[in-house]
Amino acid sequence: MYQGLLTRKYLTRKIMPLLSAVAVALCTAMVLVTWSVMGGFLNTLLTSGRAMMGDVKIEVSGVGFPYYDDLIERLEAHPDLVAAAPAVEWFGQIGLPHGRVAQAAVWGVDPERYARVTHYTDALHWRPIDTPTRRDTEGADPRLGPASEYFTGPGVRSWDSVLQRGLSLTAIDERTNEPVPGIALGIRLSGQSRPRPGWYEPTSRFAEDFLPFGGRVTLVVLPSDTQGRMIEPRARIVQVVNEIQSGIAQVDGQTAITRIDLMQDLLGMRGGERVIEPGGFRVDIDPVTGDERFVAPVTVSEPSRVTTVFVRGRDGLSMDAIVEATRGATEAFIHANSDRPQGGLLRYLTLATWEEINAQFVAAVKKEIGLVLFLFSFISLTAVFLVWAIFWSMVNEKTKDIGILRAIGASRRGVAWLWLRYALSIGVVGSALGLAISYLIVRNINEIHDWMDTALGLSIWDPSIYLFAKIPDEVDPLHAAVVGLGGVLAAIFGAMVPAIRAARMDPVRALRFE
Amino acid sequence: MSEHNDQTPILEARDVRKTYRLGRVDVPVLKGASITAARGEWLAILGASGSGKSTMLHLLGGLDRPDASRGGKKGGEILYKGQPLRKMGARRLDRYRAADVGFVFQFYHLLPELTVMENVLIGAMVLHGRLGYRKRRDEIRARAESLLKQVGLSERLRHRPVELSGGERQRVAVARALVNDPGVLLADEPTGNLDRASGGEVLESIASMRDEGRRTIVMVTHDATVAARADRVIELRDGLVVQKSASGGVGRAAAV
A26, A184, A287, B193: which could join A242 in a potential S-S bond, CB 3.0 to 4.6 Å? Predict the structure, then answer.
């Protein structure tokens, strides 16, 4: 009882304990901010795969594999799997206006099926929006109003038509009026939009300079045959139908998405009849009649191929269960098709999650998080030392009080508890303060970073290194609880020795202490 | 353990020795002093500085222990109602200091962060613990207020010690010592740090707290005038009782 009264009085009338609380708060905040940002980075890294490739990727890179529709049918029939989508992944070159060229990963997808597996629909940047994005405080985003209000000159399209073109990855050929494959570029690929807080600003307001209104780029790929040998480069001029803004720097800066049929055409992966022995004008003698006759060319029917099938599992299911379901369906698919033409390619099928694909990088990030947390926790030991030093000096200062309490009947245990309770209060106050500070910092870390960039020219978060344009700004409640508890325990730990010393004091000496 | 009755001294020091170690030197402070205090008696222990009188008070109050017996030399015994303090466990001894005796010190020893009222209540908080105190809170507060009224401080309940005069502080200390209604009040030079007028007021307060002769007071002083207020005076010199005399007080004298 008396411990509570004295703790309250000491806390409110002394500056030293407040210093201890501040030390605990700063250390708590330091560790939690680091853990939130680094942990958030890892979390974003692990979940970002789902945004653009689903949960599992089945592939034969390079030559690709046939009969993928059967594989997709089998995958989608499994109760644990929601959808699967074929894709052709290749490297290419994008010829941009004004003679600029960009290297890019070019994905050919079936947009409808791809959207069922990934967050493709959400990733299309140019679309009508009703409310400004969180950080667009001035409402300057051109998507907030009709495109015609922002752009001048001929060729302005409505935001909705740009969105629809992006969703179907289809443009209209102006000469034939026929639908043709379009391409969606990563928003940082063309260099025609610059990031603003929460939105992208087109560098030109002249509609003809804005690629997503139907500007053209040249797509160049270098195909290979089924033996992996390079063939002649193939090029196609394609209309830009939208831009991708996934938040993943690699995707937004170095990826273009087009229709799967275009990529299959360019790479020779589209199925059909293939001549394996030319006929034409070659002539031979009919062995029965002895007449001359033209030899017909020998052809084989080849199935279409894709390099990749993306798979999405049921929400809430563990990754292990999704992988297991995918593996089962894939093995059955291989078993059923391996004897068919080109079925031999199926034995090269590999299956990997996003985490496995990036395993080396993920492991490095995990190790870095562990290392940084260890270092910062070690640095936080200064809080323990500080509490220890402050409590040691306070026990000294309060020696007479300890003597008085012992004289009026307080037990040694009671005196020890007085100081530990005092430390507990300091730990609770310090940790609560630290958690509040770190919450404010983490939630506003992007704004703080932008301000540092603008005001001080100090940019710490480089999206090209950290993959994501946005610094993770979520605080995990479990991490907060662990760090908060750590702060409280650090304060108690720091006060332990002074508390024992106080409890063991000789009351007579304590009363005589000057 | 001896059975306590009215004839048994409430507090007794039997041939008590106490030695302090200063560096490598043993300094004997008490060399076999014996005193007794009867129930309701006001006993003054008179002595010069260094005579061992404060040490005797600390031993009587269970704040310290006599020397351990060794080499055929006994350390002596402190008995409360015939029961040796030496045999009390730590918890019982804490309770003895909280409930059975009350201390008043020369330098008041109030807790500076607490108000007058809180300084008095803290003794009850220590004795009763959280639950016990909450259960008796009204009763305890009423007693604390009554004690502070008795010592003339009912208007200063919310003041902190630093806002009080020396005499007032000492009267708060008297109220704190008695909040748990102990049978014995141990006062160590209660007027030693006060001017004559304030000292007189404190002595009046102490006298008024004798509870119609039921409370024993053991007061240590170097001032013969102050000692004269007691029922009986004994003198300590060099760690030994050298003189026992009845004073002109009104309490029941007890044989020594």
Answer: A184
